[in-house]
Design goal:
The chain has three domains: 138 residues, Beta-Lactamase; 87 residues; 146 residues, Heat Shock Protein 90. 56% of the residues lie in helices and 17% in strands. The chain has nine helices and twelve strands. The chain starts with 9 loop residues before the first helix and ends with a strand.
């Protein structure tokens, strides 16, 4: 199918569907309106007939039959059309007065037609009501032609309205569906450009804020995240290449030196130990990357349980206290008075706190104070690790959880820049909010995780 063929495309089909549905609704509504109008007209006509019949009976009761006969003759002579007929008959059906010459076959309501054929005086053109009173039979008839004419005008009006609405809906539906098709084609073109590598392109969002605009806005958000992820991935790849280049070069040089020592009959053991250290660094980097990947991509948590955050903090602080003392640092824990219960993986939570403490102990000078706190705030448990060390420049704070991020002063100390990235992955895995701030002086890292109720 040719995309440029308007009448064979989606806009025309959508317009037809909308028009058909609207036409069906109009047809049903018109039919119901027709029935209501017809019922109302018949009701009014019956009310007029009964009112006139009541007046005739009043004359009969007050002045007698001859007066009624004269009144009917007067009424019949005054009517200029056949729309209004009155008849008076005796108890045997004999005609006494009026333009209705044939007595109705039965009392009550009848729908009949007046005919010039002598053999058939009645049919279905008039609405007649007859009644017996004091030996007389009165019959009042009104033509149904005004009713039929009104209904015919109503039908013509409804058909004209339906035609106008049909054309309007067809045109409107075509315009709207054409606009929708253009938006979908733009969406298709944009996604095609994204698939070709253009991650900066975004879907247009009109002020109409229709369904496609809302979808486009959501897709733009996904594209933003995709673009950020790709930038982060590229940066990570570059960082990995940069960080692995040094240990690989050192290992290669150590291997060459060891080979030279063997050729000269010397001892290659120092070079082999250096090679082992460099390979250990490489293994540590890859192990950490794999751990972060497994944490970020794992599905439903299976090792989560109810954990007392205070107990984990006390245990880790007790273990790392002597290490901090050897560095001339002071490590303290400040916990909440009551047990702070959360749901999480105990091993991951311990690893998170260990990494935070290792980071603080490693980069704080002698005499520094490192504090681990556990507090509660609303329905959150707040774990914080703060120090009064050199800290991190404020412009670098948003980047410290990125993989392979390191300050220049830390590169010489053998850090692989993955410790805080692993902390961030564990916090995210637990649905926690992690942030870094200036402790003035020093660095403070805070983890907010949902607290279990009492």
């Amino acid at each position: 199918m040719d995309r440029g063929s308007i009448f064979s495309g989606a806009p025309f089909r959508t317009a037809i569907y909308a028009t058909v549905v609207t036409s069906v609704i109009l047809a049903v509504s018109g039919f119901l309106a027709y029935l209501e109008v017809e019922a109302a007209l018949i009701k009014d006509l019956k009310a007029e007939i009964l009112e006139e019949e009541y007046l005739l009976h009043e004359i009969l009761l007050d002045a007698g039959g001859p007066s009624l006969q004269r009144a009917i003759e007067h009424l019949s002579s005054s009517y200029k059309s056949d729309n209004h007929l009155v008849g008076l008959f005796d108890q045997y059906g004999g005609h006494l007065a009026g333009r209705l010459e044939a007595s109705p076959q039965a009392d009550g309501w009848q729908q009949v037609v007046r005919s010039d054929d002598a053999s058939s005086a009645w049919g279905e053109d008039y609405l007649v009501h007859s009644a017996q009173l004091q030996g007389y039979q009165t019959a009042v008839a009104r033509s149904l032609w005004p009713v039929h004419r009104t209904l015919a005008i109503l039908i013509e009006s409804l058909m004209l309205l339906a035609a106008v609405v049909f054309v309007a809906i067809l045109g409107l539906g075509y315009i709207v569906s054409t606009q929708t098709l253009r938006k979908l084609q733009t969406l298709e073109k944009t996604l095609d450009e994204v698939s070709k590598g253009d991650t900066d392109i975004r879907l247009p969002v009109s002020p109409a804020n229709d369904q496609i605009d809302r979808i486009s806005r959501q897709m733009n958000q996904h594209l933003d995240r995709l673009s950020t992820l790709m930038v982060s991935t590229k940066a990570t790849v570059v960082a990995i290449a940069h960080d692995l280049k040094t240990p690989l070069s050192h290992g290669f040089m150590a291997l060459q030196q060891a080979s030279s020592q063997i050729e000269r009959g010397g001892d290659p053991q120092p070079q082999l130990q250096e090679l082992e250290q460099e390979l250990g660094r490489l293994s540590s980097v890859f192990d950490t990357i794999l751990r972060i990947s497994r944490i970020e991509t794992s599905g439903t948590p299976t090792n989560f349980s109810t954990v007392a955050l205070n107990d984990i903090v006390d245990d880790i602080v007790e273990t790392y206290g002597p290490i901090a003392e050897e560095n001339g640092q002071h490590l303290v824990a400040k916990g909440a008075s009551n047990a702070v219960m959360i749901r999480g993986d105990p091993m991951m939570l311990r690893q998170m706190l260990v990494n935070l403490l290792n980071n603080a102990i490693k980069y704080c000078p002698r005499g520094a104070r490192i504090e681990v706190g556990v507090t509660t705030m609303a329905d959150k448990a707040v774990l914080s690790v703060s120090d009064n060390g050199p800290g991190v420049p404020s412009e670098q704070l948003p980047n410290i959880f990125d993989p392979f991020f390191r300050l220049d002063s830390s590169r010489a100390e053998g850090s692989n820049g993955l410790g805080l990235a692993l902390v961030h992955a564990i916090a995210t895995r637990h649905g926690a909010l992690i942030s870094a701030s200036d402790n003035a002086p020093g660095l403070k890292i805070t983890v907010e995780i949902e607290q279990l109720g009492p």
